[in-house]
């Protein structure tokens, strides 16, 4: 919870004794953050969209959600490209090892 607070993802209230007070909305937000993190999204992306996921005055949630989905798609595509690059590197290493083992005999 302190990590989420340090990253600016939640802002808990404070009691008179200085203890943090996690109200229901903060707990709900933590659940959303955990779900997004478990999906593999970076904190940077979550931090950008999180304030807009809760409807409020002057917030077009449809536009925010559409932009968020585009951002998630871009992140997924970058991740897929990275995975493809790593797969190519693994294939090159496998080929090298096969050649090296043939010459050892």
From TrEMBL:
The keyword Transcription applies. The keyword Oxidoreductase does not apply. SUPFAM superfamilies: Putative DNA-binding domain. SMART domains: HTH_MERR. Keywords: DNA-binding, Repressor, Transcription, Transcription regulation. InterPro entries: DNA-bd_dom_put_sf, MerR-type_HTH_dom, MerR_fam. Residues 1-52 form the HTH merR-type domain. Pfam families: MerR_1. It comes from the Bacteria. This is HTH merR-type domain-containing protein. It comes from Streptomyces prasinosporus. The lineage of its organism: Bacteria, Bacillati, Actinomycetota, Actinomycetes, Kitasatosporales.
């Amino acid at each position: 919870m302190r990590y989420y607070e340090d990253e600016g993802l939640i802002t808990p209230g404070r009691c008179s004794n200085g203890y943090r007070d996690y109200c229901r909305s903060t707990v709900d937000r933590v659940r959303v953050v955990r779900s997004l993190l478990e999906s593999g999204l970076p904190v940077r992306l979550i931090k950008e969209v999180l304030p807009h996921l809760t409807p409020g005055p002057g917030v077009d949630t449809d536009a925010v959600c559409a932009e968020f989905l585009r951002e998630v798609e871009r992140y997924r595509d970058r991740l897929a490209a990275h995975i493809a690059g790593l797969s190519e590197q693994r294939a090159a290493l496998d080929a090298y090892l096969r050649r090296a083992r043939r010459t050892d005999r």
